[in-house]
Each structure stands twice: as C-alpha cells, then as structure tokens.
Amino acid sequence: MAYLRSKDFDLIIMPDNLAQVVSSDTSIRLFAERVAKEEVEFYLSSKYDLSKEFTDTLTFSMSTSYKAKNRVELNGAAWSNATAYSINNIVSKGGLVYYAIQAGTNQDPATQTAYWTLIGNQYDLYYVSLPHDEFDYLGNYAKDDQVWWKDKVYTCKIPSTIYTHEDILQYNSYADVPIRNVFPDDETNGEDYWGVGVSYSVAAGTVPTDTTKWTAGDNRSQLILENVLHIALYKALPRIAPRNIPQHRKEMFSLAIEWLKEARKGEGTPNLPLKQPTVGTRIRYGGNTKNINHY
Fold this sequence. Notes:
The protein is an alpha+beta fold. Strands 1-2-9-13 form a 4-stranded mixed beta sheet, with no helix packed on it. A 4-stranded mixed beta sheet has the order 3-5-6-8, with no helix packed on it. Strands 10-11-12 form a 3-stranded antiparallel beta sheet, with no helix packed on it. Among the domains are: 6-53 and 220-265, no CATH class; 75-123, Carbohydrate-binding module superfamily 5/12 (Seminal Fluid Protein  PDC-109 (Domain B), Ribbon), CATH 2.10.10; 146-199, no CATH class. The protein has helices at residues 15-21, 26-44, 165-168, 190-194, 222-236, 247-265; strands at 57-59, 71-73, 77-78, 84-85, 90-93, 96-100, 104-105, 116-121, 125-128, 146-149, 152-155, 198-199, 214-216. It is flat and about 75 Å long.
C-alpha cells in the first residue's frame, strides 16, 4: 500500500466518482498521490522531516513483524464458505475482520469462535507504539535513560552536556555552540554515548488490539492528509475534463497550496516532526555571544 488508502478519499469524494476520475486504475491514483506528496515536499521539506510522515499504510498480516510507528489497516478478503482457510488467515465479513485460529472450511467467522477470533472493524487503523520517547537532540539525558531512534532502543552512557553562560562565552557565536547531545547513530561518537542499540519490533502474530504494543488510531498528520487528498484529486481531474474542472475542486486545491505556503513561512504549525537539528526556521541567529551583566 501507500501513504493514502483508497478509503481516505471517501472524506472528499464518493467512491463511484473517484473510480470515474481514475478509471478504476490504482496506478493513476498512486501517480496523483506521488505528485501531491512532491508538492508538499516542495514547500515543507526544508524544515520538516517528511520521510517520517510519508510512510506506507500497510494491511495487517499475522505473519509480519512490525517496527515502531508502522501503521496498519485492518482488512482482509471477503470470507467465502467455499475457501479452505489456514491458521492466521485474515478475512472480513459484515464490516468486521477476523483471523483463523484453526484450519477449516465453511466455518462462519461471525459464529464459529472455535475457528475464528475477531480483531476489529474493517478499515480501522493502528500503529506500533514507541517503546520509549524518541531521541531529541535538545533533550536532557542522564546515564541509563533510554530512547528510541531509527528502529533501535539506546541506553545513555554519557549524560547530555549542559552549557553554562560562561561555557557559551568561549565560542565566537551562538551558531558555534555544539549541540548538547550526540546522536545515537553518530558514526564517530554514537557508540561511546549510547552503545550499539537494540533493534525493536513487534513480533509477528501480535494483534493490534494488544495495547502494550499497538495504539489505535491514525498517526498521520490530519492536516497534511487532508491537503494531500485535495491536491492528488485535483492533479487527477484533468485527464477526465481538462477544461471543465469543478470550481470547488480548484478552490480546495488553491486553499491547500495557500496553507502550505503559510506553514513554510511559520504562520502555522503542522503536526509534523521537525528535522534534527532544527533548520529552516524564520528567525535565524548566529551573532556574537553576549555577556549577561548584573548590577
């Protein structure tokens, strides 16, 4: 799957109308999505780490292990009384999703609890919870504190550096003051400060209803999601009627672009992860360090 699900488009267009726009061709929808994502990246990639936002929405499988922040949708092929199902096969019936706990044929998942276990509602979203807070280069870490960073859990070996005003005065400018933490994956000093790290994932067969490993909901930025949908749909429309695009679609596209421009200028704060270290802010500093005088 991709960042967008076909189900997401239900928020802005009826399924039958979307099928007409893209001629029921998934490749056309995915192309429009890629164009929309590049549009967002054009405006926001200098400041925000969009690689953490634009991740795939996966279909949950009992045979797959998942990493922290992985997002899944509950879905499965429609149950058929003629199909021979094996353990861990996933099916949908009546808007619900089940997985097989015993092999069988013609065993109705809605009633045969010896053969099937209910997972949840069809199209529900879940994402893997972080085992610890994500590393923040501005954080204040003590020895033995643990963080998650790029699919690994790290344990702090050397505490964060705390700079006093006198320390800062030793540098010519604020821009020269080193950041207070070494990144866990730093090739030179990362291992000295954080060790080698331990890979973290959720074992295959861990159902999303296990709240110790999963969180129910959508971990995408809802504003980014909305704007990507409007941009993608607008980009797909010219193939149907290039000279007759509905006015409200033009307006929604224009509003999406205007919002991206405002977010780039800092006039709004999208729910997106900032790049580390922070870049692209409106206020830049790097002047000489200043004395703090007391009288």
